[in-house]
Amino acid sequence: MSHVPLPRPAGPLPACTCAATPLSPGGEPGGAAGRFGPTHALILLIAFLGLGCGLFLAGTELEGVLALLGGCGAIGAATLTAAGGGRRLMTVLVETAVRSGAGK
Hints:
The chain is mainly alpha-helical. It is 56% helix and 0% strand. The protein has helices at 38-57, 62-83, 87-102. The chain crosses the membrane at residues 41-59, 65-83.
């Protein structure tokens, strides 16, 4: 394997000019940067409808499409719950899923 030297700038690099994001006391970005809003929900709805329609038109059975979209929705809900700090809610959901899988 040959090691080709990469070109480097001759002088010092300029300082970063990106705007610093203000942080709240909890260390989270301020403003609406970390929030799940109606625009995000609309984008996900359109993506789910588009994916479902595309799979159905490609010849996938309706039960398969619904199972796939249901699984994606469950994973997305669990991710949003975990990211939002809803650990107690997530614990309840996981316990319910385990109990239903065990037949209790």
